[in-house]
Specification:
Helix content is 47%, strand content 14%. The chain is an alpha/beta fold. The chain has a five-stranded mixed sheet. It is globular. Belongs to the beta-class carbonic anhydrase family.
């Protein structure tokens, strides 16, 4: 059974890098605690804060939506120094996102990239509505929508018209796009140094459910 003691040991400054599967095991166990209202709130005390003054060893980088209901450290029951977090509305990729992810895998040696979407996503909803109406939103929101529209089109071709189904397709497309857009991420995955797992989060029950895997992660062990 993976618990917060395992997490503390795995993310201590002197710890060795985890495998992608071991990193996901820690996050999955934390999410299970969160879902069952048994969160341990690990690594959130003064001693932990002091230990991280000069270095960090996160177990995963979480590329998630900016939605206020999707706080990565809370839903995976982790603490300071445990996860490296990148967030944009709808998990839209830009140069800053790619640079942050490349830093996480090449400099921090993080073994797992989690692409984290969620149901009832406002950005995906806006993209679906724009696709149906043919009207684009104003300002820079348009840029967000334009980048999500390919997932809307792909979902429609597969017969999926609802927002939550489109969210899952958006997560899958983003996972693949990271491999296509970043030589560093692609190299790290192909060498087995990291893996990518796409996940959708349920706002109602708090569960984080895998929808796709790229790299060295056993689907039978992902859950």
């Amino acid at each position: 059974m993976t618990d917060s003691a395992d997490l503390k040991n795995a993310t201590s400054p002197s710890s060795s890098p985890l495998t992608p599967s071991a990193a996901w095991d820690l996050l999955r166990a934390g999410n299970e605690r969160f879902v069952t209202d048994a969160s341990n709130h690990p690594n959130q005390d003064a001693a932990r804060r002091a230990s991280l003054t000069h270095e960090q060893h996160p177990v995963a980088v979480i590329f998630g939506c900016s939605d206020s209901r999707l706080a990565a450290e809370i839903i995976f029951d982790v603490g300071l120094g445990d996860v490296f977090v990148v967030r944009t509305a709808g998990q839209v990729i830009d140069d800053a996102v790619l640079g942050s992810l490349e830093y996480s895998v090449d400099i921090l040696d993080i073994p797992l990239i989690v692409v984290l979407g969620h149901d009832s996503c406002g950005a995906v909803t806006a993209a679906v509505e724009s696709y149906v109406s043919g009207e684009m939103p104003p300002g820079f929101i348009r840029s967000l929508v334009e980048r999500i529209i390919p997932a809307v089109i792909s979902a429609r071709r597969a017969g999926v018209k609802d927002v939550n189904g489109t969210v899952a397709e958006n997560v899958r497309q983003i996972s693949s796009r990271l491999m296509e857009s970043s030589m560093s991420v692609s190299k790290a995955v192909n060498e087995g140094r990291t893996a990518i797992i796409g996940v959708t989060y349920s706002l109602a029950n708090g569960s984080a459910n895998p929808v796709n895997i790229i790299g060295d992660l056993d689907p039978d062990e992902v859950g």
